[in-house]
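User: Structure tokens for this complex, please. No commentary.
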Amino acid sequence: MSGAESDPSNAERTPEPRADVCVIGAGPAGALAAYRLASEGHDVVILDAGPRFDPDSRIERMERAIRPAHPDPEVWDMGGERDAYSSGGERFYPLNSSRVKGIGGSTLHWQGMVMRNHEADFERRTRDGVAADWPIGYDDLRPYYADAEAELGVAGASDNPFAPPRNEPYPMPAFEPSYSDSLFAEACERLGVSMHSVPNARNSETYDGRGSCVGYGTCKPVCPSGAKYSADVHVRKAEAEGARVIDRAPVQALETDRSGRVATARYATPGGSEYRQAAREFVVACGGVETPRLLLLSESADHPDGLANSSGLVGRYFTEHLFCGAGGLLDAETRQNHVGFLTSECHQFYDDPGQATEGTGGSIPGSDADLGPIKLEFLNYAGPSPVELAMGAAEFGDDLLDSLQDAYGHNIAMGGLVGQLPRKENRVTLDTSRTDDHGNPVPDIHWSLDDRTRRTIRRANEIQHAILDELGVDVGWTVGPENTGPAFHHMGTTRMGADPAESVVNPRLRTHDVSNLSIASSSVFVTPGALNPTLTIAALSLKCAEHVDERL
Amino acid sequence: MELTRRDALAALAGAGVVGASGAAVLRRDADGATGEPPAAETVETATAVAEVIYPAAVSNVPEFVETYLSGRLEARPEHRAGVEGAVAELDRFADAFYDVPRYVDLDADRRLTVLHRANVDENDPDPDGGPAERVRYYVVNDLLFALYASPTGGELVGIENPQGHPGGADSYQRGPK
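Assistant:
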């Protein structure tokens, strides 16, 4: 099949007779690993639970995103028995709003921000005395970060004084700052707060055969033009290198042989058949929820607690980034909602969240509290989109236009991310009381927040309010510790470590227990930091592929 | 403010009619009809709705609606059935409330009153819902989407590159006029 929407019934979905590597999951991690391994000459087969989406359907999906009749999961066909889940923890977790199943995975609906983790993110225990250190540091990932930036196509600028060191320029120039960024810039200067560009996996010029952004303004949940990177790009590249893709083929379990190695991935097809894909190496790249679920579903007499779970940690330490923000109205035009992405952010409070600032006309007081890293964002889509507002209105004609003119034009807002501390009790388990369309127990998300995370969100709000007050904004809303929500970054459920008793995979992304099973996913993150995770996922995936290649 | 052909084609682009059917609309103008245009009754009824839900500031509504609807229904036959069904519901509303067989036979005040009395204004749009919900989805919101995702509709509100319109990556950098 090429670009067309996959046919659920007629496609050939029998196993590949000869495969060196079986990659499970066609999101960014799986796509990059498959592409890299296929490029090295290996026979690669990719299995994905979801369909191959027709690129031509993206405009219709964009309309679904804008029109109020269609909830977010409907944009990419999420929901139903296939995607059933439970949320048994302290806080409800909206799983199906936070993921896409299919070729491209959740990069189909992501925002597209791609930052390198700071050096401190890998050393949380050493630096702050909390959580744990990663078994690798920034320097270990640095070449893979550069590689990942080139693969995804990142528009950025080296204007962030707080970012970790880099030697090479970004592949594309950064997007110019927005008009509303310029409003923030004056207030930030008066308070001693630095602004800088956002690295975007979004073409600011033609790159890698894809055109530059044309401003549809609906990046999340869908970019109709293809200017925003999505992992179907690398699935196609992997196919061009000889890889084979089998879509709508949810893996039911990984099956091991007498030597304890994975021998086959047993998968289902839309026609009701089950097949077994054999391979020499297996790479699981199913994200932070389905990755541990698959390992737990792969329990057997030899692995009664699930595969690769001798530590008992598969599914443990589920972590998220929490959104924090504030906004309101300004007595001036703010020019929002022309584009759906950010052009400026602030990492000043990342490594030193309690710092005081002093600018040309004011200051932000410091804090002695124990805090985690904070990333601040300057939004370009604050307030309502007029076209969305119109379709939800209860009035027509001139009355409607008057309301739209009143509602649009003066909104302004800041956002931000805070990473929660990994906690053992936050976990993905199997809910045996509910099953999916193949009779498998569904994932159950147990999620709660810790006091340090709440405190850090409160600190982020203090900084945001100070900036908005300085700008003269009539602050109308705040998202703080009480009403925060997840940023849809699933992390931590098969954590990386040197000690098999304390982790699931080793620093080479191979599971401690199973010698031919690797994991490429945010599930291997030890701590979450507070930066969007996809570039780190991509870098780890390229590292994983390198190690798999070495073993083949 | 006149709704132009550019607005209609921009609305079509935002509605998924980018390639073949957009070209079909252009071809039909250039060298005669191609494809199957929507029924005249459908265009007339949609225009009659647009005239009461669009602000008075816009002109050239009939041509805008016809161009938009032609491209959209040719490109999306599954959507066409929904629009035609919703148009039939509007005629039933007109008959029920004013004892006239067709919605287009009502004057503007009564057309608007029908939308209010049938609760088309208050109901959530739903392509699979009841009559008012389907009218809201297939007719009213289709037309509002066409207008407010177009450059002229956006400018009425103060945004020249509204969501759904591929107006480039320059306008967000510009300050107010």
